[in-house]
Amino acid sequence: MASPSVITLPDVSTPSTSRLSARFAALAAERRRALVCYVTAGHPDPGQSVTLLRGIAAAGADVIEIGVPFSDPMADGVVIQKSSERALERGVNAPAIFAMVAEFRQRDADTPIVLMGYLNPIERRGWAWYAEHAAAAGADALLIVDLPPEESASARELLNRHGLQLITLLAPTTDGPRLNEACAQAQGYLYYVSMAGVTGKDLAQSGDLTRRVGAIRAAAPVPVYVGFGIKDAATAKACAAYADGVIVGSALVATLAECTTPQRAAEAAARFLAPLRQALDAA
Q1: By C-alpha distance, which of 211, 245, 219, 236 is closest to 33?
Q2: Beta bridge partners of 116
Q3: DSSP-derived secondary structure letter, 201
Q4: Which of 4, 24, 185 is closest to 112 using CA atoms?
Q5: Which pLDDT score is estimated for 72?
Q6: Do 6 and 93 touch, CB atoms closer than 8 A?
Q7: What is the pLDDT of residues 234-272, one digit of tens each?
Q8: pTM (2 decimals)?
Q9: CA–CA distance from 149 to each of 142, 165, 197, 208 (Å)?
Q10: 8 Cβ partners below 8 Å, 6+ apart?
Q11: How many CB atoms lie within 10 A of CB 254?
Q12: 92 neighbors 46 (Cβ within 8 angstroms)
């Protein structure tokens, strides 16, 4: 992997938005549910990151969300908090993450990459700098957990100028005009948070969850994926009955936590993801 302090920005021949569109069109044509995988950048070790990303793509991930480590990840549970702390201790920062993405893109021009994190690391570098470097490295979109909807229009406009999309989170409490606006402005996909609270909790299926996701799908021009609580084939299959796909994060991050080599991390990811991929394809 390139040095964390130095980033070489490649020419990205494929416009970033086309990767997401192409992947979603292929899924729709094949009538398949999407598997979106979240990993924390630089966890369990920065030297493993690119090998791990490639292993996750090979294991059947349709989209990869790369978590940007932050010292106060307020929406995340203990597993992702600890992974962020570990990555920060090893010097993982924005240039290091962009270098990871750029190296990944040398051999994978198709798998969409979404950078998921918080406002602070972006504000620290500056929006224009962050967007320019993220796009040049080969990212496709940003998902910013603590970006208020009322302030998202200017961020979306700037990101779009750089060929990046802004992914929106919807919580169980998102309702009324705010929900309508989120659906109208949606880009890429909508990330539906299945429950109030932080990542890593167990998902409780309910008729209300099914109805709510169904209503959002009917109103949104983009796929709706369910995250928080997806931990195995059973939960993935249950969500596939009413959502366009699932997002798995904490369970995958926990699986990788004790891996000591890039090869072991990639193999562990493949073993963990295989039954989820099979369950979604059978749905």
Answers
A1: 245
A2: 67, 143
A3: P
A4: 24
A5: 84
A6: no
A7: 999 999 999 999 999 999 999 999 888 888 888 999 999
A8: 0.90
A9: 14, 15, 19, 24
A10: 2, 99, 102
A11: 18
A12: yes
Q: Which residues of 74-85 are buried (b: 16+ CB within 10 A; e: fewer)?
A: eebbebbbbbbb
Q: Read off the pLDDT of residues 154-195 as tens digits, 9 standing for 90 and up.
A: 999 999 999 999 999 998 888 888 898 999 999 999 999 986
CB 149 within 8 A of CB 181: yes
- Helix H or strand E segment including 273: helix 262-282
Q: Which two tokens stand for residue 65?
A: 């969300």
Element (H, E) at 49: helix 49-58
Tokens of residue 269, six digits: 């990811």
Structure token pair of residue 199: 């990542």
Structure tokens at 211: 């109805």
Q: Single out the catalytic residue among 45, 62, 76, 140.
A: 76
Cβ atoms within 10 Å of 18's Cβ, excluding its own? 14
pLDDT band at residue 23 under the 50/70/90 scheme: very high
- The DSSP call for residue 53 is H
Q: How far apart are CA 68 and CA 80, in angstroms?
A: 11
DSSP state of 196: S
> What span, in angstroms and rounded, lies between the C-alpha atoms of 246 and 38?
11
Q: Is 111 exposed, middle or buried (0-12, 13-18, 19+ CB in 10 A)?
A: buried
The residue behind tokens 């990993």 is 39
Query: Both tokens of residue 182?
Result: 């989120």
Which residue out of 65, 103, 140, 244 is catalytically annotated?
65
Q: Is 65 a catalytic residue?
A: yes
- 68: region left, alpha or beta (phi > 0 left; psi from -120 to 50 alpha): beta
CB-count exposure of residue 20 (10 Å: 0-12, 13-18, 19+): buried
11 is catalytic: no
